[in-house]
Every structure is written in structure tokens, then in C-alpha cells.
Write the C-alpha cells for this entry.
Amino acid sequence: MFSLFRSSKATPDLSFISVDMHSHLLPGLDDGLQEMEQTIQYVKELQQLGYKKLICTPHILTGVYNNSPQTILPKLELVRAAFAENNLDMQIEAAAEYMVDGDLESYINDGLPLLTFGKNFILIEMSYAAASSNIEQIIFQLRLKGLQPILAHPERYIYYMSNQTQYERFVDLGCLLQINILSLLGYYGEASKDIAETLLRKNMVSFIGTDMHHDNHLGALKKLASKKSFYKLFESIELKNKELLS
């Protein structure tokens, strides 16, 4: 892969990531893809870029995206059936992206089933407007139940940009960090790009995800995958994505 650095433009090859563990490709569940035809198209495109497995993570946010295992898992089976019909050879699983709020705390306290992936990983997120007041308590409670929380796209939370020690605090609490791959393109702004790169340099990033929602994301991913500077960021980085292949 790194021989690509000698040329001015890289051949897109994201096989070193191998598994996308954050996406919104299950159709009709949230603000991601809406039609099965889109899902098939996007998966073919991601496969061409080098992905070998996809873990879809629809939002769970009460009153906005009222998802649960009862809505997500049947949709996963429909997608798998569509893959078979289209002779599409791609591993696909589903979990969820849980908003850290009072409802998630209730799910945990009430012992309701939570959607996880890999070795009991659970993806959590916060609002972009303000930090969740119970974020540290949620991390503690999940860990107590034997689950491994992963905080989605910490580089996009503007309220931490002037207090970057908070990222270290999360890691110290036992929470893993997942950055969005498009942050490295500057898709969400230069500040998010700088923080994502800093977290990578400090070896604080465990996972990288597409957070794929729509055509703009797919187009930007293709653009990023053609930049040799992108691959250079990972010369000495060990991600956990490939561990999810098993």
C-alpha cells in the first residue's frame, strides 16, 4: 500500500481498514439511506474501495429515530436477502449508534437488550450542540455490564475543541474513540480535521468509520481514498477495525 506514496495520486484501496463499523446503510431507519436499491449500490461501491465487512449502526434517539433491536435486526435480514438475490458477496452486520441520554441510561438500568458488535463493543454518541451531562456515568455503567463503549466522532464535538484533555479523560475512563474517515478530508471543517489528525498521532484512535449517510459522503470518501497523504497518516497507526473480521 505504501508504495503508492511515490506517485502524485493514490489508487483507492481501503483494504487496510477492511471493516466499516459505523454507517447508516440499512434503508429507511434513520437519516441514512432510504431505499434498498441505494443500499445495494453503496455496498458495491464500498466493496470496490476495499471494504470486506460492513457494520450498520442506525441511530437510536427516542422521538426522532425510534429504533430498537425489533426494528433494526429484521431490516438487516431483508438486506442480507437482497444481497443474495444480487449475488453480492459482502459480510454485513448491524448494531446501533446510541445517543447518550436519559433513555440510554434507562435501557442499561432496566437490563434491556442493547445492540453490540465484535467483542461487546457498543457505539455511543452525543449531540453536536452540547455534551451529555451523564456521559461519564454511561461509560461507567456500560463497562460495569461488561460492554466496551466506543465514542463516535469525538473530533466533531465543538464544545471539546478548546478542551482537548477531555479526549484523554474518556480514554482513561475506558472508552475507545472512533473518528470519521471524512474528518481527515476536512469534510466537517478544518478544526475537526486537525483534531482527528492529532488523535491519530497520539495513538488515541481505536476505530475509523465512514458514518456513511448519502451521496455527498460517498463522493467525498472516493476523493479521500485517492489522496496519498491520507494513507501516509496510517504508516504507524494500529486500528482495531480488522479485528472485527472474525
Observations:
- Confidence is low (pLDDT under 50) at residues 1-5.
- Strands lie at 19-20, 53-56, 59-60, 91-94, 97-99, 121-125, 148-152, 176-180, 207-209.
